[in-house]
Amino acid sequence: MEQEKQGFANAELLARLDFLNLELGLERCMDDEDFYLDILASFVEENQLDALKSLYLENNWAKYRIKAHTLKSSAAYIGAEELSAWAKQIELAAKEGDEEFIHRNHYHFIAYYESVLRQIDSAMSLRNRGGGNQIERLKILVVDSDLSCQGSIKQAFRDQFQVDAVETSEQMFAHLHGGALPDMILMDISDASQDNHEALRELKRSEAFMDIPVAIMVDEHTHESMLQGISEGAAEYLIKPLRMEIVMMRINRMLQLSRLQTNLQHEVYMRTKADKEKNQRIANLLDQVVDALGRTIDAKDKYTKGHSERVAKYAVMIAKKLGCDEEQITAIKYAALLHDIGKIGIPDEIINKPESLTDKEYAIVKAHPVLGAEILQGITAVPGVYEAARWHHERYDGLGYPDGKQGMDIPDLVRIISVADAYDSMTSIRAYRERMTQAMVRAEIEKGMGTQFDPIFANIMIDIIDEDKDFELREK
Question: Is the pLDDT of residue 228 over 80?
């Protein structure tokens, strides 16, 4: 009977490990489920995370390669095939001294490795109920007077996150001032008896708490409250009644973005402190993290793959023809890569909708510049990214959004990116239309000079179009 119970427990646990190649892993353990689970437990307990992070900071590529090789083998053994492939690429780059590849991919590699560890560790908690997790769980603070909603969230996420809950904003601030800082906050703003809008504004004004990402929970028909919450600094919104699979997806996306931001600031600080003269290494680090964020943005929309990278390419071409110096060109490149970061907070079903958007859906999409600016407001190491995220939909004639800025009130960097952004949109395939011809694109840019676009930058884009005889500058 006891053996039968253990079999059921193993089946439940293995069902939660379906992201691994279980057939391969079990085959290597002679189909002994208990032995395979012991190996998984050892994989988590003896993980290489801290070592890989430290060796990366030290630029110790010989030992970094050894750790990547060890991970490649152990990941393959348990059936974590994608992680093993990642480790193999990193190992090869370290072997060949390809530091550029390592700098561009280290954080994506580490983030994926950490994600695999967390998923395994969460599943393994079923095997040893009551035992502590080997990987520290991320903390979520729920602010909601609805106790049943609190309970549902705690129940759904008990294995993956540490969930604390309070009923009022006053209790939330007491919790925060007590030193228990969460990795993110889920805040209900639909209860009219609670002024959580003011609490959200106060959070975002506080130097101590402003960087904690906040997802607001709203009722289905409180559209204005949702838009207000985003404008006040919320990074995401969730519709009640909550669908936990959607909540989990959006929470994971917010936490991933937050950790990338934290890594960017922390690593820039650490490298500057260690050696202020290593400017090239810092530049490589910024390149890697900004590129990672850009790929995260583009992955959100299946119709605009590579959009951020192409906008950056075209914006840099304009900047070079203007005679901008290297520092200005780098700032334009970074800002262009991150200009659409606010789309991270727009629901997938709206971003990827093949039909025309409703007025309500379009209003949600139009909130992405404000959301992007809120996400990037703490990134002081990369100049111009806040402005590009917030104002890339402004127009030269003042008829754009969200702030109606016009002419020279819009920074040069943003006016350049706006031209490049429009060009890429017109030369790419969209769900609602085919790619425009080069002649049509040229005519549209010319028509928008002085209204939608800065006439100087638009005229440079036209020169670039005229030089592109084979129409190579387009989505491939």
Answer: yes
